[in-house]
């Protein structure tokens, strides 16, 4: 562990960067980011790749397409696939279903408006719905910095709908969404 103000070891800095990339990163880019000599970076990358292999890790560091990237080891791919597929088929929570319904019926809509309808903060739920591919960003709200959200084609597919016109009518006991139409995003975020 490094002390405050000290730089971490080059190997730690490289690992940190490689953990967040989704495409191969050239050694020259890693050297620039880590403020290190390219020869030293290449030597560390080779050492890391060898070390992961020797330690029988579930991942490996590979040089592909002119860059370095962490990959799941081939013999562990079945576990990763099962995890990802099980995660996608997991049921949505009640909070996620309610948030998704508000977005579906009011789209495009900001988080603050969804929070106003639901009466709770929906930031985490919105992130979950985005991760699952059920909603996506749809630009900025006019007159505010609020991000607009809408449902995706995957949402329609999962519900077996051809279009949003096929959504069932809102239940008569739900509060009218028009009650929230007069509120602007700035007043909702207070």
Describe this structure in words.
The chain is α+β, with helices and mostly antiparallel strands. It folds into two domains: 10-75, Orthogonal Bundle (Arc Repressor Mutant, subunit A), CATH 1.10.10; 91-188, Arc Repressor Mutant, subunit A. It is built from nine helices and five strands, in the order H-H-H-E-E-H-H-E-H-H-E-E-H-H. Strands 3-5-4 form a three-stranded antiparallel β-sheet. Strands 1-2 form a two-stranded antiparallel sheet. The two termini are 40 Å apart. Mean pLDDT is 85; it is low at 183-190.
> Domains counted in the coordinates: how many?
2
What structural class results from the helix and strand content? Answer: alpha+beta
Number of strands: 5
Q: Which CATH class of the largest domain is shown?
A: Mainly Alpha
* Major sheet attributes: 3 strands, antiparallel
Proportion of residues in β-strands: 5-15%
Overall geometry: elongated
Helical percent range? 40-55%
- CATH fourth-tier homologous superfamily of the largest domain: Winged helix-like DNA-binding domain superfamily/Winged helix DNA-binding domain
Q: What string gives the helices and strands in order?
A: HHHEEHHEHHEEHH
Side by side, the strands of the main sheet go 3-5-4
Oligomer: single chain
Q: What is the residue-mean pLDDT, rounded to a whole number?
A: 85
* End-to-end Cα distance: 40 Å
Question: Radius of gyration over alpha carbons?
Answer: 23 Å
Q: Under the CATH scheme, which architecture of the largest domain would be assigned? A: Orthogonal Bundle
Fold-level CATH name of the largest domain: Arc Repressor Mutant, subunit A
Give the uncertain stretches in residue-range form. 183-190
The count of helical stretches stands at 9
């Amino acid at each position: 562990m490094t002390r405050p103000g000290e730089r971490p070891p080059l190997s730690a800095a490289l690992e940190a960067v490689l953990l967040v990339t989704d495409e191969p990163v050239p050694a020259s880019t890693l050297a620039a980011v880590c403020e290190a000599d390219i020869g030293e970076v290449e030597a560390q990358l080779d050492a890391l790749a060898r070390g992961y292999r020797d330690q029988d890790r579930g991942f490996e560091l590979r040089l592909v397409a002119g860059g370095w990237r962490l990959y799941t080891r081939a013999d562990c791919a079945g576990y990763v696939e099962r995890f990802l597929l099980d995660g996608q088929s997991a049921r949505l929570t009640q909070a996620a279903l309610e948030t998704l319904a508000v977005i579906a019926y009011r789209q495009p809509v900001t988080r603050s408006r969804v929070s106003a309808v639901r009466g709770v903060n929906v930031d985490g739920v919105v992130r979950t719905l985005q991760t699952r591919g059920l909603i996506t960003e749809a630009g900025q709200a006019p007159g505010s910095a609020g991000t607009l959200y809408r449902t995706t084609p995957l949402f329609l597919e999962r519900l077996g709908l051809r279009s949003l016109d096929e959504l069932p009518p809102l239940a008569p006991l739900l509060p009218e969404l028009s009650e929230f139409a007069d509120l602007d995003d700035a007043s909702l975020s207070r």
